[in-house]
Amino acid sequence: MDSSYAVGDLRVSDAERESVIQRLQDAYAEGRLDHEEFDLRTHLAMTAKTRNDLGGLTYDLVPVPQPRRKAVSWDGEPPTGEDRMLASAAHAVAVPTLFVGPLVLMLLSGKRSEYVRRQAAEAVNFQLTLLLLTIVTFGIGGIVYAVAWVLSIVAAVYALAGNTFRYPWILRLVK
C-alpha cells in the first residue's frame, strides 16, 4: 500500500464542496462571475472528486482582504496613547462605579478627544442598560453583571489597542 499521495490527490468531502460553492456564490454576488461561468463552476464543484479539482475552481477568486478598522479622532488622526489610556479607563472604571466613572471621564476628557468621548459614552450606555435591566427585573438582572465585568475588561483592552468597541444589545441613551 502506497501512502505517498499528494494532498491535491485526496478525495474531497461534501463540506469541502460546500465551502467552494459558497465562495462561488459570494463571487457571483460580487459580480466577479457571470451567470454561465457560475453555473459551470458550481456544476464542476458538485462533481469534483479530488482537492485538485476543487482548487482550480476558485484560484482566480481570492477575496480582497478587508483592512481592520482603526479608530480615528474627529480630525482624522489616530488616537494618542493618552487617549487610548483614558478610553480604556472609561471601560475599566465602570466595573466598580457603574455609570458614574465613565460619565465623569466623558465630561472631563471628552471635550479634548472625540475618541475618549465616544468610548466613555459607550461605557455609560452599557452601564445604564444594565441598571435599567436590573430595575425592571426587580434585581434578577443583577446576575448579568458578572458577564458585564468580563465585557468591560474586553472593551478596555480594545480601547487600549486603539480600536473602537461597541457593546452589543444596549440602549444608546447618551450620544
From TrEMBL:
DUF1707 domain ranges (all copies): 10-61
Ranges that cross the membrane: 85-108, 128-161
PANTHER family xrefs: MEMBRANE PROTEIN (PTHR40763:SF5), MEMBRANE PROTEIN-RELATED (PTHR40763)
Origin species: Actinomadura livida
Subcellular location: Membrane
Membrane-related topology note: Multi-pass membrane protein
Protein name per the record: Putative Tic20 family protein
Keyword terms: Membrane, Transmembrane, Transmembrane helix
Highest taxon in the source lineage: Bacteria
